[in-house]
Amino acid sequence: xxxxxxxxxxxxxxxxxxxxxxxxxxxxxxxxxxxxxxxxxxxxxxxxxxxxxxxxxxxxxxxxxxxxxxxxxxxxxxxxxxxxxxxxxxxxxxxxxxxxxxxxxxxxxxxxxxxxxxxxxxxxxxxxxxxxxxxxxxxx
Length: 140
Prior knowledge:
The protein is mostly helical. It folds into two domains: 96 residues; 40 residues. The protein has three helices and no strands. Helix 1 crosses helix 2. The chain is elongated. The chain starts with a helix and ends with a helix.
């Protein structure tokens, strides 16, 4: 944030705090019509300060909207690069699956398949052993 923006925000915060304290302190008396002028004036000053807050917010939003248009161009370029990389990755996976890739990738595919076969046979053997011993226990 710029220094001018920070100073304006601090100024608005001090004004808001002052008028809100005055409004709160005179609210009860304002209801009894003792100091209704002070209370209504504090309320109008709070409304005015709120309007200044909204104007400051509009300035800040306008500044960020300008940044968003610049960033959207960069974002589109990044999306295009990601899609190109994603397509290349999919082509590489397809080549690995049909085993026409280079020797190293073919070896990785072979190792992956071997590991899968070993795990599958381990699970089948474990389940078979478990069912056998459950059957033995039920027989006794």
